[in-house]
Write a structure and sequence with these properties.
two-stranded antiparallel ribbon, TIM Barrel, alpha/beta, 37% helix, 308 residues, globular, seven-stranded parallel sheet, 9 strands, 10 helices
Length: 308
């Protein structure tokens, strides 16, 4: 019997998890800590991943010119317009949020944790940007608050990884997941469906690999091509196939069927900026896409983990 009934979903939603863990509505507040990235400044690569805009991934975070407290207050008004009883998690979203010295990290993280109502942090980063010193600090932080580290993987396939300029190996990624879990730190992994030349089976293989790791959550994105990126130039040059809405829904459902039911689905689609989006246009209607995924899962009488 399928048990994840909150939100009338057939997969393990983040909202379901938060409600059960904290007993209250939890909002994530996206923040921009003004970090750079080792894939931008030459430490491991230049130019960043080819799908990133000039402002870097996570451009929907706050304004880096403002303090983290100011960003938090502004974003809080947006996400909790009705001022309902809730708690908050500070989400360091933009670029690589462990890519700094320890004192800088402490100052930024602890400023957010000092804000009333904040019960935890989500920190988005890369597997090659967590030093041993940083790892020890994160382990200490994990004992004080509800901490989640979000690691970008995108794909397990080396050919694709080189194409999109990830500049780290699968082995590096797996090793960092192991190190984080050894410290009992929660890990959420980002993957992207629809990367150039990837087949359905390749995308399913990425999910199968994650089942073999001790991860607590996943974010499933649809590749969206935005203006003024290397991905946009590659698309203009090669016209590689962009998944249709029906293809995406089919792949996501097949991925959910394979996933360990304990893994929390933090995200199941992308949230592109309509002003800069080139393709696919169907991503603009997020609510309709989510509804269509739900309806198709009911139609197929399927749910997360049925083939796990």
């Amino acid at each position: 019997m399928f048990k994840y009934t909150l939100d009338n979903k057939r997969y393990h939603t983040l909202n379901y998890f938060y409600k059960n863990k904290f007993g209250i509505k939890v909002f994530k507040i996206s923040l921009n800590g003004g970090f750079s990235c080792p894939n931008l400044d030459g430490k491991v690569g230049f130019g960043g991943c080819i799908y990133c805009s000039k402002s870097g991934s996570g451009e929907f975070g706050g304004d880096a010119n403002k303090s983290l407290t100011e960003q938090f207050i502004e974003m809080k008004k947006i996400v909790n317009k009705k001022n309902i009883p809730c708690k908050y998690i500070g989400y360091f979203q933009a670029r690589t949020n462990t890519y700094a010295d320890i004192e800088t990290l402490k100052r930024k993280y602890e400023e957010v944790l000092a804000i009333p109502g904040v019960i935890g942090l989500n920190i988005a980063t890369r597997c090659d940007a967590i030093s041993d010193e940083c790892l020890e600090y994160l382990a200490t932080l994990n004992k004080k608050t509800f901490l989640t580290i979000e690691l970008g993987l995108q794909t397990i396939h080396e050919k694709t990884s080189k194409l999109i300029n990830r500049c780290h190996s699968l082995e590096q990624f797996d090793e960092m997941v192991y190190k984080l879990r050894k410290k009992h730190i929660n890990v959420v992994v980002h993957i992207i469906n629809g990367l150039p030349n990837e087949t359905t089976e390749m995308m399913l293989s990425t999910v199968k690999h994650l089942n073999d790791l001790d991860i607590q959550g996943i974010k499933i994105h649809m590749l969206h091509i935005i203006k003024d990126t290397e991905m946009a130039r590659l698309y203009e040059k090669t016209k590689f196939h962009v998944l249709t809405k029906d293809e995406y829904i089919d792949i996501v459902i097949k991925q959910l069927e394979l996933l360990n039911p304990k893994i929390i689905i933090n995200r199941i689609t992308s949230d592109p900026d309509k002003k800069t989006l080139i393709e696919p246009k169907w991503l603009c209607d997020k609510c309709q896409l989510l509804n269509d995924i739900d309806k198709e899962m009911v139609k197929r009488n399927t749910y997360q983990g049925i083939k796990f």
